[in-house]
């Protein structure tokens, strides 16, 4: 059994956008010769699965359901079968896994499953999401299908297909409004050499860190209530207050906080702390050694649905402000000893004394 | 490892800073006690809006107590919000204008 985690790439995009074409191109290249493909289709009979089978014999189908519906146990079952099959020699060795999602699936629950499921988390690297957007129909699809907007929000990279036929001039801007940090490139899936696309596994998701691409102005235009905006704060943050605020925000609005990425200046920390969450799933914060030539200030970029940026900012600043205030002099530090001699609600805590037969 | 369910690792909550090399206070590591004390201090300001008090119960859990004397013991920061809702019969929403104006007043 190989202990090295397998690279994982999720390919998503609305129906007809070109996901399968992209996958077939990637698989046809020698660089992807040792890849395995998991295809998820909504119908009982998988057609994409058959099309991809022309490109590789390492294809697994997850038919009859949509990967987006919930945290799915069948993805773990499938992964277990795949790894057991590989270890037993039934499946040829592989170094990469592509997961092609159904066209109407929201990638977020799958991402959540891959991050929190212990088996997937230990066997796979952090998945990278590529969203294919139809250059011709993409703009109208974003306007009519909420799933398409969520696919764009989850992307690390966005590929606009059919650029030779592209008619909507403002597609890139619409994509930027939903996802300010994903790399966007136009790509003719049928003719253009793969080139940079072959590096999909090479660059870690951290490469799209917020400070690299996002612009900090609020974006007013939004689709299906999905919008992105940025908060910034010059003062160092109190990490405890930030944790309290974020857990409370995710508790109440987690389903509508599609993604948050942040570079935070934390009190007592010489370098920035990178924060990343998607809905209820918060990634472990990452600490960088120093700010290099960047200005030391906190920046948080949100992709939210039906939430007011102004209210989120007001709430964020209010919570940070109470952290900065001195504690009220209540004569106690909020600590309640859970030991004999203390009291809860006026009742003393007692520990039973040793019985006589032990005392002798 | 959790001694009850034998689950390995994964118990560290993302917001926990105590013991982490990178989070420091006054040049040293942040102690668990200091972090919990700070957490209770801030949480108390928020919970007061819902008529609930919060205290650190023996350094291992949080004791929530409503004005009517109902109590709940919560072990994680994440779990506080649902218990706070139960004790106060109000949804805990950090975007609620009434909460924000109360925090601003103080």
Which descriptors would you attach to this protein?
heterodimer; A: 360 residues; alpha/beta; Rossmann fold; Hypothetical Protein Yjia, Chain: A,domain 2; seven-stranded parallel beta sheet; six-stranded antiparallel beta sheet; B: 106 residues; alpha+beta; three-stranded antiparallel beta sheet; 5 strands; 37% helix
Characterize the structure shown.
The complex is a heterodimer of chains A (360) and B (106). By secondary structure, chain A is an alpha/beta fold. Chain A folds into two domains: 7-208, Rossmann fold; 213-324, Hypothetical Protein Yjia, Chain: A,domain 2. In chain A, 31% of the residues lie in helices and 22% in strands. In chain A, the strands form three sheets. A seven-stranded parallel β-sheet of chain A has the order 3-2-4-1-5-6-7, sandwiched between helices. In chain A, strands 8, 9, 10, 11, 12 and 13 form a six-stranded antiparallel β-sheet that branches. The radius of gyration of chain A is 25 Å and the shape is globular. Chain B has a domain at 38-105. Chain B has a three-stranded antiparallel β-sheet with strand order 3-4-5. A two-stranded antiparallel ribbon of chain B has the order 1-2. The chains are: A alpha/beta (360), B alpha+beta (106). The interface between A and B is large, with 49 and 49 residues.
């Amino acid at each position: 059994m190989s202990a090295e985690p397998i690279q994982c790439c999720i390919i998503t995009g609305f129906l007809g956008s070109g996901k399968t074409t992209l996958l077939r191109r990637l698989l046809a290249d020698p660089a992807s010769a040792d890849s395995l493909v998991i295809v998820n289709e909504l119908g009982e009979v998988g057609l994409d699965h058959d099309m991809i089978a022309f490109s590789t014999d390492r294809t697994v189908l997850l038919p009859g359901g949509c990967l987006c519906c919930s945290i799915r146990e069948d993805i773990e079952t499938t992964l277990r079968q795949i790894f057991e099959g590989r270890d037993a020699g039934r499946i040829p060795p592989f170094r990469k896994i592509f997961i092609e999602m159904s066209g109407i699936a929201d990638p977020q629950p799958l991402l959540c499953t891959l991050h929190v499921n212990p088996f997937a988390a230990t066997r796979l690297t952090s998945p990278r999401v590529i969203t294919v957007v139809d250059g011709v129909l993409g703009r109208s699809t974003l306007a009519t299908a909420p799933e398409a907007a969520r696919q764009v929000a989850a992307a690390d990279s966005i590929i606009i297909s059919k650029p030779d036929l592209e008619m909507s001039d403002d597609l890139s801007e619409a994509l930027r409004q939903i996802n300010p940090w994903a790399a966007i490139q136009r790509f003719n899936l049928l003719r253009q050499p793969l080139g940079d696309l072959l590096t999909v596994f090479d660059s870690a998701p951290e490469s799209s860190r917020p400070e690299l691409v996002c612009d900090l102005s609020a974006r007013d235009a939004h689709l299906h209530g999905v919008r992105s905006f940025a908060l910034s704060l010059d003062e160092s943050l109190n990490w405890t207050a930030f944790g309290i605020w974020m857990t409370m925000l995710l508790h109440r609005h987690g389903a509508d906080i599609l993604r948050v990425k942040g570079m935070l200046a934390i009190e007592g920390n010489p370098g920035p702390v990178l924060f990343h969450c998607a809905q209820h799933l918060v990634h472990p914060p990452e600490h960088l050694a120093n700010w290099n030539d960047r200005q030391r200030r906190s920046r948080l970029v949100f992709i939210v649905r039906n939430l007011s940026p102004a209210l989120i900012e007001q709430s964020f600043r209010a919570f940070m402000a109470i952290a900065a205030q001195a504690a009220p002099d209540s004569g106690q530090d909020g600590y309640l000893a859970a030991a004999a001699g203390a009291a809860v609600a006026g009742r003393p805590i007692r520990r039973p004394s040793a019985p006589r037969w032990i005392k002798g | 490892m959790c001694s009850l369910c034998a689950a390995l690792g994964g118990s560290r909550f993302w917001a926990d800073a105590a013991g982490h090399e990178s989070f420091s206070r006054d040049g040293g590591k942040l102690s668990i006690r200091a972090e919990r004390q700070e957490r209770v201090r801030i949480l108390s300001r928020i919970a007061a809006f819902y008529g609930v008090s919060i205290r650190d119960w023996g350094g291992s859990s949080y004791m929530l107590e409503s004005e009517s004397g109902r109590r709940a013991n919560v072990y994680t920061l994440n779990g506080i919000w649902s218990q706070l809702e139960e004790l106060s019969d109000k949804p805990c929403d950090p975007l609620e204008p009434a909460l924000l104006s109360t925090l601003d007043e103080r």
